């Protein structure tokens, strides 16, 4: 039987408002009470994901920045990979982004650094309250950076991606977490590698792992897990890339929670609270 669940957040476990709903919260808490372990695997910053984990109320391992950081349930950092400082300094240069419309972000250990104010992005962080710090990224020394994130329109990011390919080749790992989010990590980082690290630490075979994802940064997460599921709302490019991975419900309909209840033989509804006169 399955003993561990690995799940992405945006487009997967979180709803359309980028929050967790009560049905999902009750589902994961009941499974943890049965002894099932959880891993949250996301491109988000560690500090952001801690807040989401607190809302879920479970003792999950956290794979963040697409695998560049792993934290145990007690928040001990057990794995870290940084982009080389010289590469970070180059990645922060506006000409590499390709358009002044593209927002450049750096994920440091304890901070989200951004090159301009973008209050619209804070809607993605309602559960955690995580916020950014604005700075001239060209002045950053490049040390201790897990991820560089470019946010922009898909057509602009195509130019960014082409610039990255031309200048860095396969010396960095470049992926999309959403159509408007292009993410850069060091070349030996991915969610799948991080998942394998946690499974090895816990001495759990991949056959006993269920995984959920919806976008291109979930490819090797889904390839690593023994029982992968792709969201119905998944990126069409991911569907084309992994045609044999079964589809499940939509993130905006608590698709992960419904699939988990089916897998583990749980009632597919939240129990109604008892009436005061009962």
Automatic annotation (TrEMBL):
The keyword Secreted does not apply. This is HMP-PP hydrolase (Pyridoxal phosphatase) Cof, detected in genetic screen for thiamin metabolism. NCBIfam families: Cof-subfamily, HAD-SF-IIB. GO terms for molecular function: metal ion binding; phosphatase activity. Pfam families: Hydrolase_3 (PF08282). SUPFAM superfamilies: HAD-like (SSF56784). PROSITE patterns: COF_1 (PS01228), COF_2 (PS01229). InterPro entries: Cof (IPR000150), HAD-like_sf (IPR036412), HAD-SF_hydro_IIB (IPR006379), HAD_sf (IPR023214). Its cofactor is Mg(2+). It comes from Caballeronia sordidicola. Belongs to the HAD-like hydrolase superfamily. Cof family. Keywords: Hydrolase, Magnesium, Metal-binding.
